[in-house]
Amino acid sequence: MKKTYENALRLLDSRRRKGRPKEIAGSGGVPSISEAPGVTGTPNLRGIPSLVGMHEWLYLLGHSNNDVNNINIIHIAGTKGKGSTCAFTRSFLHVHGLRTGFPGKVGLYTSPDLRGIRERIQINNKPVSEALFTQYFFEVWDGLSSQSALTPGHDGKDKMPRFLQLLALIAFHTFIRERTDVAIFETHHGGEYDATNVIPKPAVTGITAIALDHVAQLGPTIENVAWHKSGIFKHGVPAFSSSQDPAVISVFQARAKEKEVPLKFVEVDQSLPKDAWALHAPVQRINCSLALAIAEAFLELKAPAESRSLTPEDIAQGIERFNWPGRYETIVEGNNHWFLDGAHNELSVKHVAEWFAKTALDGSKSSPYVLIFTHISEERDCNALMECLAHSLRENGIRPRYIIFTTYQERLDGNTRIDKTLKSLLSPPPDVLTMYSEGWKKIDPQAEIITENAIEGALHAARKIGEKEGGMRTLITGSLHLVGGVLNLLRPLE
Description:
By secondary structure, this protein is of the alpha/beta class. It contains 16 helices and 14 strands.
């Protein structure tokens, strides 16, 4: 096989698992918090934890614990705001590095990608190039496949990493080979048993807002989720968390005591600029404050003695240069304004409604509000999510005149880009558009409802409204899959 970018993507895609395990390993599934084990315990889990095998695979690639520790990892977990917090942290450290020389190279590993797989592995604010991704992918793939007999098997037969494990390994390999001065790693889903938790001793850890999510894997209570997320705490490593519910705080404090971790809960920093565009969404002020605390702690530990703090100018520039596609993002096309956020649960759509109401009012009040929405999932009540968004918009004074429902299919001709990593989600239930249309009509019989089978068609429909009305303000939300397709059509990845 030729070592091309396209072939790297095909091999990577072959490592997707067909679906989450249907059976719970053991007798009781994920334990309740009263049964949750200590640091050395092993609870019953759904399937094989993704952490299994990561140490051995890194070793087979020639990377020791010291190699991993030497790239100075900041490890961030949470339910909401992980990506934004990582991006704010990256922005602060990058600006500081431009001024002082440290850190000179800032790595970032996040998921999911929106426009292409390379978005998940970035250095100094840019996705790695196709050439670099291809080079490091095949170094990892060839290095592991040639020694597959020695790697840990997950099912008695298959001894290669699964999709997310492989991506994390490529990220570690890339940052070690590129000698980054800091590497910011976002967890995938949990924490304790997440593939990224192979990090022996991060420089700093952080946890964003905790809410119920991925309950089939993490457990049915907020305490279960908190236990898993705080699994990234490491002995003696400073940890920071945004404000949390009392039940979450209790779990975090217990785990911090167990691991002898200095833990600090971060409130919103009142010194942040009041009118910064990146902070229009109130939740982003929380994420930014947490990132600021994390970045300052990192510099205190790792920077040269003469430059161990962020200046007010660093902070202002870091916020100004903040960029996190598809999260509280605005794109302007003449009189047409697109407002994008990949919110996909009830808590996040409430935040989006508040942000949209505040931000969209800055534009022309004569142009109509438009909503483009879809959410296709077996795990969530899609109709309930739509209803929550509708009521949240109304509570914030927004009543969209036009509602456009669509699917995850990107283009009208059905073509799919080679680096799209969401292929399995392209086929919605046959009645999803009818379900959404009928549901919204019950909420607002006066709204004009449009259905489009592809995201491209939804954008065309919104533009036609803009032409007719002299402009529009369109909110696009409900799923990162939807927002990713929109971004690829409006602003493809370079």
